[in-house]
Amino acid sequence: MFRNHQYDMDCITWSPNGRILQVEYAMEAVKQGTPVLALRNKTHVVLAAFKRAQSELAQHQKKIVKVDEHMAFGLSGLTADAAVLADYMRNECLNHRYVFDAPMNVGRLVAQVADKSQQKTQNSSKRPFGVGLLVAGCDEKGPHLFETCPSGNYFEYYAMAIGGRSTSAKTYLEKYFSEFESCDLDALVKHALEAMNKTTASDQSLTVKNTSVAVISTTSPYRELSEEELQKVIDTLEEKKDEPREEEPAAPAAASGDGAAPMDTSA
Predict the structure, then answer these.
(1) Is-contact 132 75, C-beta < 8 A?
(2) Which pLDDT belongs to residue 4?
(3) Could you tell me which of 138, 166, 167, 243 has the fewest CB atoms within 10 Å of its CB?
């Protein structure tokens, strides 16, 4: 059993080394979820998500949720927890439109969601939301992209990826980040799918069934790309290299050295 098990029974007890373990467990649920990424330029923001099916007989789970005409989010983690946050965000958008006759400000709604998430970490009878969101939207200040965490933190990005195997996508986004601002929509969608392609295993590839892409711009409302549009972009993606083959030559080099060398590298 985990040695700090007496400190992870609720989310208001600190461990001796200054950690709240239940919040960390919720963050881990996000890291083990399906990969989701988003990127933006001056006029558009693109969301891309990888969808999984429970079995061959099941439909693929939806990972991009529309909140309003100008806002949507991609999720990684527990889908049921995301449904609770989606209901809250939709109600807030409806109330704001009813009272002020204007769409909800993206940053303000993300701050409210972060406050709601943080409140769950301060009550012993509650648990943190086990889901991370990439909230994309456009308002009078232009396109925005935010990440929310189960801890209550939120950050604004130009491009971001979360979920399982998202490190490869982040590396791709960092490499081509300087090009995004001047990209047109087609190039931005291609960059999104190229980054998403990096998150899949070597024996797996993107298809119109397991991938979804949504676009929001300053001039047009939320729109999800059709299967035909997706297929055209997927056909142009760069072929993946077989990663294990690149690591094979390193083994003979270590074997030909001194017997102590493998021990030194593994220490």
Answers:
(1) yes
(2) 56
(3) 243
